[in-house]
Specification:
By secondary structure, this protein is an alpha+beta fold. It is built from five helices and eleven strands, in the order ββαββββαβαβββααβ. The two termini are 21 Å apart.
Length: 270
Amino acid sequence: MTDRVRFRPFTGDSTTRIRLKAAPLALVLCQIRWPEMTSLQGDLKPAALRLGTQLEDYPIFGETRELGYAITPDGIQPTAGGMIYQWQSIDARWHVSFARRFLSFFCTEYGDYEEFSARLSSVITSLAATIRVPLFDRVGIRYVNRISDPRLVDDLDSYVRPEVLGYSALRPQSQEVRLVSSANQARYEVGELALQVRTGVIPPGETVDPSVKPLDVESWIMDLDASAEQVAPFDADSIVAQAGRLSDVAYDYFKLVTTEGFVREFGGEV
C-alpha cells in the first residue's frame, strides 16, 4: 500500500505522526448517507439480508427502529422511525448499521486507521455490490475521545489546551464547588469540509452516543465530527478517499489541541 499524502490544515505539519499505544477512543465511526432511493422503498429487510450475506466478518445480526421526535400539543413526543439493520463482529469491536438512507461503520476498540480504512472499504464494496445505491450526498467521520481517570479529569489543563476546555478550565476556590456537567461546541469550515467539535464533562451514567456505553464515573469527552456534503456517484474508492481526508482533519485538530503531557500519558510515539 502506497503511503497517501496527509492533509494537515490546522498544524501545517504533514510529517510528524503521533501514534498512541492507549488512545482514549470510545468510538470511531464513518457514516455514508444518500437521498431517498426508489429502489429502497417498501420493505427494506430483503435488501438488508442480501447485504448481510456479504458481511462474513460480522456474523451477529440484529434490528431496531430509528427514534424520531414530533412536536404535538402535548409537547415533544418520541416517534418510531424506519428500521435499522445491524451486524457486529464476534468480539463486538466492529459494527455495521444499514437503514433506508445511510450505512454506518464503527468500532469501539480502535487500533489504527489502516485497519479501520481496510474494513470500511470492504463494507462499502459489499454494499455497492448487493444494493443499488447510485449516489451519495454526505460522508462523515467521528472520533469520540473519553477520559475517565479522576487523576486526569481533575488536571485536564496539563493534557489539553485551555481553549477547548471551556467551563472545565475554571477553578473555583471552594472545594464544595464541583462542575457536574458542561458542553462546549465549535464548528470549523475547512474548504468544502466541516469539523464539529464538542467537549465537556459527562456525569456518571450518561453518554454522548447510544453506541458508547455509559460509565459509573465522571468523564470528559472530546467529540470530533468531520463531514463533507456533496452529491457524487457511489464509488467505494472515492468514499474511502474522502473518509481518509476527513480523518486527517479530525486528527490534525487533535494534534493542535493536545499537549506533550497527553502524548506521554497515553503512550505516544512520534
